[in-house]
Amino acid sequence: MGVMRSWVAGADGSDFPLENLPLGVFRRADGKACIGSAIGDSILDLRAAADARLLQKELAAACREDALNALMAMGRGASQALRERMQELLSGAGARARVEPLLVSRAGAEMLLPARIGGYTDFYASVYHATNVGRLFRPENPLLPNYKWVPIGYHGRASSIVVSGAEVRRPSGQTKAADAKEPSFGPSKALDYELEVGFFVGQGNRLGEPIPLAEAERHVFGLCLLNDWSARDVQAWEYQPLGPFLGKNFATTISPWIVTLEALEPFRATALKRPEGDPKPLKYLDSADDRASGGFDVTLEVWLRTAQMREPVRVSRGNLRDLYWTLAQMLTHHTSNGCNLQPGDLLATGTVSGALADSVGSLLEMTRRGAEPLMLPGGETRKFLETGDEVILRGYCEREGCARIGFGECRGVVV
């Protein structure tokens, strides 16, 4: 495939080479929110590029907006055209004189939410996570009967989604100890993170018109990292019979850069092979193409830094290819009843866990609900998160013959 070269200092070999060019929104020195693309240690200001007449007319109009929704609505063809134009501008020596003044340092940029998120849905697509959690509560029957038939999800709260770096305030809620006669109200004592991947809807669908599996990825704009913070003690008391509510809707953190599906093409993978005896998905959720290439080989890491640490420590490493349900299956199922998705809507995978002990994506699994505390350098232990803890999610793709691309970081400090 070969590796591309950019004239931008620090681009080659970084998380954000020419092969990546993720999109996000940042605040310029003049206070305006602008669409940009990460390249090395810089951001290409796409509003400035549009004003300099470096972009085709329709793309220029979308890139002058203060969020990515208009570009998302234009479909995959538009994001592909923009990507190709940026690669041309950031590699050709002849364009350097015009483009270099449009670069902004990433280090000093204030990142904003990349889109106006009208709806947020969180799935439960990792069978390893579902099994691990199920064993804690139902040792004899960890998976409910519907799990291997239907992609399980719940509607989260779009208004409490925050961008990486935002502080996360410990929530209060109702909890009930096993030996208590009645519940009490107070700060959560079992605050947890969830390592997830979010995917943004590009073009939407009309109300009442489902999206077939073969067309699902045409409606996916790109991926980000996502931390669905969870108050496990609040969740355990309230979730029956209608599922997650206040235990999860107080904050969801996403990384600021959206990695497009075009950038992820070299890192496609087969969907997780279902064990012998598992049911075959129903016809609307099954295709040979999705089985062959519906997965993505994305390494996902969780890093933790306590108030006493100088440097964070990695506590787990998993991979997006371990999902039981593919992104296409999740999106197709979401619309199968005629539900209309809109540009900028956010869907998430649910906690991504693997088969190994060091590949689980939450403290709930890692510490077995607090029974086996996590040992940290310096003698500290954690059952769940404490005030001052910073959770850092990282993601990247590597494959021989391809440039490594990264997602950046998804950070949040508990206050």
Q: How many helical elements?
A: 11
Our measurement of the CA-to-CA distance between the termini, rounded to an integer number of angstroms, reads: 46 Å
What would you call the structural class?
A: alpha+beta
Largest sheet: 8 strands, mixed
SSE layout:
Blueprint: E1 23-27, E2 33-39, E3 42-45, H1 46-51, H2 57-63, H3 69-73, H4 76-91, H5 96-99, E4 103-105, E5 110-112, E6 120-123, H6 127-137, E7 153-155, E8 161-163, E9 172-175, E10 184-187, E11 191-192, E12 195-201, E13 220-227, E14 230-231, H7 232-238, E15 252-254, E16 259-260, H8 261-264, E17 268-269, H9 288-293, E18 295-296, E19 299-305, E20 313-319, H10 327-335, E21 346-348, H11 363-366, E22 374-375, E23 381-382, E24 390-397, E25 405-413
Give an overview of the whole structure.
- By secondary structure, the chain is an alpha+beta fold.
- The protein contains 11 helices and 25 strands.
- It has helices spanning 46-51, 57-63, 69-73, 76-91, 96-99, 127-137, 232-238, 261-264, 288-293, 327-335, 363-366; strands at 23-27, 33-39, 42-45, 103-105, 110-112, 120-123, 153-155, 161-163, 172-175, 184-187, 191-192, 195-201, 220-227, 230-231, 252-254, 259-260, 268-269, 295-296, 299-305, 313-319, 346-348, 374-375, 381-382, 390-397, 405-413.
- It is globular.
